[in-house]
Amino acid sequence: MTLGTPQAYGDASYWDNRYRQDNGPFDWYQQYSGLAPLFHLYIPKRHRILMVGCGNAVLSEDMVNDGYQEIVNVDISSVVIEAMQRKYQDYPQLKYEKMDVRDMSAFENNSFDSVVDKGMLDSLMCGSNAQQNVGKMLEEVRRVLKPRGVYILITYGGPHVRMPHLKAPESWTTTLHVVAKPGSRRALETPSWVVTDPIPMNDDGSLGPDFHCEDPDLHYVYVCIMDPSQHTTKTYK
Ligand SMILES: C[S@@+](CC[C@H](N)C(=O)[O-])C[C@H]1O[C@@H](n2cnc3c(N)ncnc32)[C@H](O)[C@@H]1O
């Protein structure tokens, strides 16, 4: 499934209605098996992890079953959060809280080692006031991350549409990986790349000859690592 058409993807009411009609579970884009090599590379098992826009994905459960110890999941939809709280009441490693990622003031500065985003930023990109909302969200992500913390964005958006949001301000360094879409032509081929090897990216967001900026058979994984000298001291009243 692709989040491609501008709709009300940024609205809580859109997601509440959707989760009332279909209580899943459903993982957008990729399942854990496709992402695990990258998570193993960048997210140590002891990390305190924030999963933004968790929906009713199985990703967090799969991570816990693989040894991750603490994952705080947030979503703007109270319908999905209540369902996930019931589903995972016997998993002490998983917490679910209703929250808008544009205002995560319930969390202290520098309180997470990693933030995982699969389809969350994409939802804001597809809604109204995208630029402003994505800016607010990324400011909050940077605020809650510790120095050297990691933000992992899994998205259908290629570098020329995502890097303008990720590269300013320069408080982190961004590395790109690509993963074939499950069931796509790319997934059936022997890949000409190794998923854990970063893809060289030019300043204008263009890629090497094997990759087209908007290849419909690829998902893009941006790994942003906080520069320890730039971490935020912003406080909320
Ligand atoms: C495309 S779905 C991705 C769900 C899940 N991460 C996955 O990979 O299957 C986007 C999710 O973001 C949530 N969402 C949208 N806007 C939000 C916001 N401002 N704050 C928190 N969650 C939001 C939606 O409720 C929805 O569950």
From TrEMBL:
Q: Which lineage?
A: Eukaryota, Viridiplantae, Streptophyta, Embryophyta, Tracheophyta
Q: Which Pfam families match?
A: Methyltransf_11
Gene3D superfamilies per record: Vaccinia Virus protein VP39
Q: Does the keyword Methyltransferase apply?
A: yes
Which PANTHER family does the UniProt record give?
A: METHYLTRANSFERASE TYPE 11 DOMAIN-CONTAINING PROTEIN, SAM-DEPENDENT METHYLTRANSFERASE SUPERFAMILY PROTEIN
From the UniProt record, which GO molecular function terms apply?
S-adenosylmethionine-dependent methyltransferase activity
> Domain Methyltransferase type, which positions?
50-152
Record keywords: Methyltransferase, Transferase
Q: Name one GO biological process term.
A: methylation
For this chain, the family text in UniProt reads: Belongs to the methyltransferase superfamily.
Q: Which InterPro entries match?
A: Lys/N-term_MeTrsfase_sf (IPR051419), Methyltransf_11 (IPR013216), SAM-dependent_MTases_sf (IPR029063)
Name of the protein = Methyltransferase type 11 domain-containing protein
- In which organism is this protein found? Picea sitchensis (Sitka spruce)
